[in-house]
Design goal:
- The chain has a two-stranded antiparallel ribbon with strand order 1-2.
- It has helices at residues 10-25, 33-58, 80-103, 110-115, 127-146, 150-169, 174-205, 210-219, 223-241, 250-256, 259-285, 287-290, 294-317, 321-341, 345-376, 392-406, 412-426, 430-456, 473-491, 493-505; strands spanning 60-64, 75-79.
- It is mainly α and 511 residues long.
- The chain is globular.
- Helix 9 (223-241) packs antiparallel against helix 11.
- The chain has a domain at 293-505.
Length: 511
């Protein structure tokens, strides 16, 4: 078999292979952990990008592990949505790992320790573990979006979850450990629900392959069991995605974790639960999703609407910088879920586009927070008054990403919300369209309040006097790449939207 025939699994196995190598190599070469992790993610990004035109031309790529044909064997099946997600995951993980090099490094001198606080500094012995876990969680997300088998989606989902708990708790201090335990106490029962739903599906269909499930659920005589399994599966994935009201683990986990981990969690990890809901709804349940389970979708739609308002109100109320951004994630998850629940091609297009918008902008937010915290030690919004005088590039990156989150033209956030509102109008849900607009206004309140503090108010109580300026280039440049990408995605939307629309049009929306 030619090497090119294995292309579908190269991005995944590359990361897993290097993740195993890092602890071994760093026994002798202590500073090789970050370069190895960075090269692995760069290779994964290139390999994922190579798959995009192949998938675009063929419709999908299918790879059978061990040469066992599905539905009996394990299938890696990459469609265009999956290919775009693989590129997004690899790109953001690469940016965050470059940023991590100085963030998790020990201070090199007493002078640096004075002006570079390392608020969440971990022990040097944990660095190889951090980079290995980072590669494993990256690989598990790639495997999740590429899997053509619902059980292996579950395996990758739980591998991601285990790494998430460890990365949240890796500083070893009380608050991160407590946040990780709270996360785990919510996510483990959710995993059991997902596994129970998969078992119910298998008991009445005899298969775990997604394509095969679509055919067998449509013709099965056990519609009631299939509907029950769908409800259970949605609840399990909703916890993983922090969909309101099962979101209570998210604020602590995202705000107490090291900032690079917060960026990863908010930008990508919660999106796996959302992607799972969309994937199994259309690929596995087919007609049941559109008819018998419509009451579930209506409940999900109202939960999403409440999440938009609730998340915005809670973000406005927060005084802690990272906690504000964590509740902002709850709000934006509401946008994405609402687009899915409308069961409209235009709304789903806006939903999937917003996945990309939010991933870029929220990763930028948390990297900005990491720069400010590590540079100054300040964590509250009030402390950000006058921050732009010492850290103008970091503050400008936050301001640019804020435009996308609010949805100001011509940023990418305007494009995604335009399609979401259009989907609301297409389906006659004018109230839901009004919720999206109201959410944008409230997002402007909590985002632009921070921007106002940064740029237009003087420092209070002598704050920022001892801060020497911007952080190192290896942290500022990744942050600005993400900020610029939120704007660029708006300008290149004419390139991204047509193939994304074609991929969504292939889903059985009208079944």
């Amino acid at each position: 078999m030619e090497l090119s025939q294995h292309a579908a699994i190269y991005p995944i196995v590359t990361l897993l292979f290097v993740a195993v190598l890092i602890p071994v190599i760093t026994l002798r070469k202590k500073n090789w952990d970050m370069p190895l992790a960075g090269l692995a993610l760069l290779a994964s990004l290139v390999l994922s990008a190579i798959l995009v035109p192949q998938v675009r031309a063929a419709g999908y790529l299918s790879y059978h592990l061990g040469s066992w044909e599905p539905p009996f064997g394990i299938e890696i099946r990459i469609d265009f949505l999956g290919a775009l997600m693989m590129v997004l995951i690899s790109a953001i993980c690469l940016i965050v790992i470059v940023y991590s090099r100085r963030y998790v490094a020990p201070a090199r001198s007493e002078g640096e320790k004075t002006f570079f606080f390392h608020f969440e500094e971990m022990e040097e012995s944990k660095r190889p573990v951090y980079y290995s876990l980072f590669l494993v969680i990256s690989a598990s997300m790639l495997g999740f979006v590429a899997s053509g088998d619902i059980f292996n989606m579950f395996v990758f989902l739980e591998l991601k979850a285990i790494c998430s708990y460890a990365l949240v708790a890796i500083p070893g201090t009380r608050l991160p450990v407590r946040a990780a335990i709270k996360y785990m106490l919510m996510a483990v029962p959710a995993a059991m629900l997902v596994l129970l739903a998969i078992g119910l599906l298998y008991s009445v269909t005899g298969t775990l392959n997604l394509a095969d499930l679509a055919e067998r659920t449509a013709s099965s005589d056990y519609a009631q069991i299939i509907n029950i399994s769908y409800v259970i599966l949605i609840v399990g994935f909703a916890v993983k995605a922090a969909v309101f009201p099962v979101h209570i683990w998210l604020p602590d986990a995202h705000s107490k974790a090291p900032s690079p981990v917060s960026a990863l969690l908010s930008a990508l990890v919660v999106k796996m639960g959302l992607f799972g809901i969309i994937r199994v709804s259309y690929s596995a349940y087919g007609t049941h999703f559109h008819s018998d389970a419509s009451f579930v979708v209506n409940i999900v739609m109202w939960a999403a609407a409440i999440a938009i308002v609730y998340g915005a109100i809670m973000a406005i109320r927060q005084r802690e910088f990272k906690l504000m951004m964590a509740y902002g994630t709850v709000m934006n998850i509401g946008y994405i879920v609402l687009g899915f629940a409308l069961i409209d091609e235009t709304a789903l297009l806006g939903s999937m586009y917003h996945v990309m918008v939010h991933a870029l902008a929220k990763a930028c937010f948390f990297l900005c927070a990491g720069l400010i915290i590590s540079r100054s030690g300040y964590q509250t919004i009030d402390d950000l008054k006058g921050a732009s005088r010492k850290m103008p590039l970091t503050c400008a990156a936050f301001a640019l990403a804020s435009l996308a989150i609010v949805g100001i033209p011509p940023t990418s956030g305007f494009i995604s919300k335009w399609y979401l509102i259009s989907g609301c109008l297409n389906t006659g849900n004018i109230f839901m369209g009004a919720i999206i607009l109201a959410g944008s206004v409230m997002a402007a309140v909590y985002c632009f309040r921070v921007v106002y503090y940064m740029f237009f108010l003087p420092p209070s109580n002598g704050l920022w006097q001892e801060v020497s300026g911007e952080g190192p280039a290896s942290m500022v440049v990744p942050t600005w790449i993400l900020a610029a990408a939120t704007l660029a995605l708006g300008f290149v939307s004419s390139w991204v939207l047509p193939p994304l629309r074609d991929a969504i049009a292939s889903l059985p929306l009208g079944a």
